[in-house]
Amino acid sequence: MDLVRQAKVYAAEHDTTINALVRELLREALIREGRARIAADRLLAIADHGPYFTTDPGSIRREDLYERR
Prior knowledge:
The protein is an all-alpha fold. Helix content is 67%, strand content 0%. It is elongated.
């Protein structure tokens, strides 16, 4: 079955249209992208105001990371 036919069947089963399905998928994708962009901007802002972690990551031994306390 080709993609358009499958989409028509799916839309009919969900009482909607292909156009509405595509519009909703695009809206959800843009919302996800926007949230990811906002999170990345927040991380960059935090990094600009650092450093909060003053230890050189290269100086941490693997054993120290897994040390049980």
